[in-house]
Structure formats: structure tokens, C-alpha cells
Amino acid sequence: MARRVFFSFHYQPDVFRANVVKNAWVGRDREDAGFFNASVVEATKKTSDDALRTFLRKGLEGSSVLCALAGAETASRRWVRFEVLQALRDGRGIMEIAIHGIKCAKTGNTAAAGSSVLGELGFWAGDGRVTFMEVGPDRQWRRNDDVPSIAVSDFHWSVQDKQGVNLSSMFKRHDWVLGDGYANLGSWVEAAAKQAGY
Q: What is a single Pfam family found in this protein's UniProt entry (predicted)?
């Protein structure tokens, strides 16, 4: 079964590598995967933060999995963090793929490996609420102000006996090159969707 996948990535430096992943389905027998092209985000950055949050929430609608495509600087990008945490809040499947090893078509070079997006994000459960967290520039955990907290009873994921949870302990990170992403993307997506109950 084809899944709708929302790809989240740092546009300017990683669009070529992101397109390698997004186009891995081309030429294969599949249903329309419904990929959302994050390049549209660049055009909307001239609007207000509220308008951009609304736009991105609408972009996530209908997707069963968010796939963060991690390049050298992706983990620190505000709107990638928003997309991942919003997907968590919505109960969508989440996965990450390291794309730094994909060679640039122009130069033939790979990029430096960056931090894990999942490793920079998490949540805190306490007093009946789930608060979404991120690692700040000082490397300390802080509340993410873009994604509002949610009642524990409305949160899709189990929080029993949990207070602070790093997303890297919940969701898988894959490497496009080392993990043969071209051959395995479908199974990675399926596993993330099933983990979320899709």
C-alpha cells in the first residue's frame, strides 16, 4: 500500500539530495505517494509565522508519515523542527533519513554529516499535559514555542511513567547511502506508518 509521505528538509543546501530521495519512486509501479514538496515553504517565508504554521499544518494533512531528510544543518532549522513536532502531536509516523552521503550532481561531493533531527527534539509529560521540547543553541532543553502543548489524554503516543522523552528513542534514523535507501525506502515508510497505527 502506498503511503502519503511529507518530506521535511532544509531547502537551500539539501534540495538536490532531497529530490534523490523523493524521486526514488519514479519508474516504479506504485500509487500516487502524495509527496509534499517543501520548496513551497521558501516562497511562504515572507508571510507571518502564524500564516506559515497554518500552511505547514495543512501540508501535513492526509500524510501518514513525516520523513525528515537530515543534511548538515537540518536539525537546527526552526520549520523542520515545527514539522516534526507537529507530526508527533498529530500522531503521524515519523522517521529520519541521513542524506549527507548522497553525492552532488554538479560536484560529485558528499556533505558533512549533521546532527540527528530526532536527537534534537522530544517531549515532556507532566501535570496532565505533553509539552514539546527542543535543544536550544546553548545545548539545553527548552520548550518549543511553535507547537502548543496537548492534554496527555489526547496524545497519540504512550506516556506512561515517562516525563522527558527524546524522539531518537522512539523513531528510526536511516542512512540513505549505507542503508541502500533506494531499495529500502518503501519498507522504512511502511514501518513508520505501522508504528503510528496507520
A: ThsB_TIR
